[in-house]
Amino acid sequence: MAGEHILVVEDEPAVARGLLYGLKNEGFVTYWAENGQAALDIAHDKDVQLILLDIRLPDISGFDVCRQLRAEGKRQPIIMLTASDDEVDKVLGLELGADDYVVKPYSLREVISRIRAMLRRAYGELATGAEPEKLSFGNIVIDVNRLQVQRNDQPINLTPTEFRLLRYLVSNPDRPISRDTLIEMVWGYGSDIGDDRTIDVHIRHLREKLEDDPTNPRWLLTVRGFGYKFRPDIAKS
Ligand code: CA
Question: How far is the CA of 60 from the centre of ligand 1 (A)?
């Protein structure tokens, strides 16, 4: 379970309820907007990682909501919920800035797997935009765009898997992250990796490469019986 915040914009209460229920079941935190203005308000006020956006709304259309958010520089992934293939053409043709679309009627499972794929693309790998280009802690600097890590100004050779794992942990500071979530974020939804020990091995390698004392880690901490968490710098002396 990931805990990302998802905004559902859907004016039909029964449809909205089904989506909200399914998303909560998957561990997401949800917001619901039943019209376009409410969607904009929530997108402005709340920390939302992804928006599910119905096109036909009672006030402003989903197209306009999408266009306005992009014009304001909002970069969260937006998945449009479309009622027909005609609308799909518009989503694709108008360059609104939507990232994906799902045609109604859709299955909840399909929507959730699209959401996970989108979150992974936006936040798990080469995120751009809202994310800083460089993340740093202690003597470590992570160059997100160039996929490089330096320790004491010297390049560290991480495998792509180690890089994704590190990047995900560092992007979620002070948050215990389960092994299942890490597997999903690093290898993808429905991946066959599925072995907790695989994560443990990669964490060990990361500690060996990054920690001054790998057996007594300062940053990459074990959360017993659950997973791991990244602890950012504490008080500097
Ligand atoms: Ca609608």
Answer: 11
- Structural domain count, the chain: 2
Residue 153: how many other CB atoms lie within 10 Å:
7
Tell me the two tokens of residue 218: 């300062």
- Sort 201 into a burial class: Cβ within 10 Å, 0-12 / 13-18 / 19+: exposed
Q: Strand 29-33 to strand 5-9: parallel, antiparallel, or no bridges (unpaired)?
A: parallel
Render pLDDT for 61-81 as a digit per residue (tens, 0 to 9). Answer: 998 999 899 888 787 889 988
**Distance (Å) from CA 70 to ligand 1 centroid:** 21
Q: Both 109 and 154 in a single domain?
A: no
Residue 84, domain extent? 5-126
Q: How far apart are CA 135 and CA 131, in angstroms?
A: 9
Global pTM reads 0.54
Residue type present at position 33: A
Are residues 103 and 142 part of one domain?
no
Same domain, 78 and 115: yes
- Report pLDDT digits (tens) over 33-54: 999 999 999 999 998 999 999 9
| Same-domain check for residues 77 and 152 | no
Q: Does 144 lie in the same domain as 114? A: no
- Cα 122 to middle of ligand 1, angstroms: 26
